[in-house]
From TrEMBL:
Domain of life per record: Eukaryota
Name under which the protein is recorded: DNA/pantothenate metabolism flavoprotein C-terminal domain-containing protein
Residue ranges constituting the DNA/pantothenate metabolism flavoprotein C-terminal domain according to the UniProt record: 186-298
Residues forming coiled coils: none
Entry-linked Pfam families: DFP (PF04127)
InterPro entries membership: CoaB-like_sf, DNA/pantothenate-metab_flavo_C
Family (UniProt): Belongs to the PPC synthetase family.
PANTHER family the record matches: CORNICHON-RELATED
Gene3D superfamilies hit by this protein: CoaB-like (3.40.50.10300)
Length: 326
């Protein structure tokens, strides 16, 4: 049985979605248009990655937030995957602290690095007789330290926003292809919550679905893009995917299955309800590291990034030892 056939039977188990709906990954791109600014964004990414290469810096592509799947062509309604964007935004800050350059591919209006530490403007500002508006004194020192970090790192982070699943997958393909030009120094850290279902354009109503009868919606399966990502777009990069489940009994076996199927480097497995306290990193080599955060003042992302950086360093060393060039 081919890998793809195996995957289809796994995905299809117990589901009423027919297996014929699992298209080849290329069909998805033939069917779903690229975002309008695609060429411009990818040329910006190319320059950012080439500049990082000149500086011999590592680059982490961090994906973050949910992916929206429209139900109508003129979209009023859509389905979404859960993700606030905290994992991606917090990890971005820790990668920058560790000297990485970061391409931050994030869902519009999701949680943002640095900005996430500052409460809403209406809470931090107040009217003032002399200057008209000023920062409330109780927030001043926190805002100052956040701004200092932001100023220090802003040129090391290239942020790109997306909204729909189609835009996300187009941008992921373009960015990872560019990332491959720096070989093992590149890392993909796929924290975005990516939909497994979509409606191809030909099956999607043009106008708002009317509520005079029960709607019938048929989703197609989105091909797992980890496959071409590892095999074709960025075969040399260090690739980490996240696995989100709500049933603890299947979490680790799903993580191991993903590593066997796609042959990438690491899966970080997390449960929806405990994702801020505990995750398990499973490597293709079979090594399993459980990360528990017991420290109220620490974020689990700082521990995840520490581990990931260490594993990435090892990967770079191993690959350079194999390379015929000094
Ligand atoms: O943002 P927060 O609120 O902080 O939450 C963080 C998180 C829980 C969203 C994050 O830690 C997380 O688990 N993200 C991955 C969610 C997800 O898409 O899991 P999954 O089990 O559905 O998919 C597994 C992997 O397959 C993902 O890395 C995804 O990139 C990949 N995938 C998914 C669908 C698809 N068609 N192709 C893919 O390659």
């Amino acid at each position: 049985m081919s890998d793809l056939a195996k995957e289809m039977s796994v995905v299809n188990a117990g589901s009423s979605v027919s297996v014929e709906n699992m298209a080849h990954w290329n069909d998805f791109y033939n069917e779903v248009p690229a975002p309008l600014n695609y060429a411009e964004v990818i040329s910006g990414v190319r320059k950012f990655i080439q500049d990082a290469k000149q500086e011999c810096a590592r680059v982490a592509v961090v994906t973050s937030g949910g992916t929206m799947v429209p139900l109508e062509q003129l979209t009023v309604r859509f389905v979404d995957n859960f993700s606030s964007g905290t994992r991606g935004a917090a990890s971005t800050e820790y990668f920058l602290d560790e000297g990485y350059k970061v391409v931050f591919l994030n869902r519009q209006k999701s949680i943002q690095p640095y900005a996430r530490h500052i409460p809403s403007v209406l809470d931090v500002l107040e009217l003032d007789r002399e200057t008209n508006v000023k920062v409330k004194s109780c927030h001043a020192s926190k805002i100052q330290s956040v701004l200092e970090s932001y100023e220090k790192y802003k040129s090391s982070c290239f942020a790109i926003t997306y909204e729909s699943l189609g835009d996300y997958l187009w941008l992921l393909k373009g960015i990872s292809t560019e990332l491959n030009s720096i070989g093992a120094s590149g890392m993909l850290y796929l924290a975005a919550a990516v939909s497994d279902f979509y409606i191809p354009k030909n099956d999607m109503p043009e106008h708002k679905i009317q509520s005079d009868r029960r709607p019938e919606i048929t989703f197609s399966l989105v091909p797992k893009m980890l496959r071409p990502l590892v095999k074709e777009w960025a075969p040399e990069a260090y690739i980490i995917s996240f696995k989100l489940e709500t049933d603890p009994n299947i979490l680790l076996q799903k993580a191991e299955k993903a590593l066997k199927l796609y042959q990438h480097n690491m899966v970080i497995a997390n449960m929806l309800t405990t994702r801020k306290k505990t995750v398990t990193a499973v490597e293709r080599t079979g090594e399993v590291v459980k990360i528990d955060n017991h420290d109220e003042d620490k974020e689990i992302e700082s521990l995840i990034v520490n581990l990931v950086k260490e594993k990435h360093s090892k990967y770079i060393q191993e690959l350079s030892a194999k390379s015929p060039f000094p």
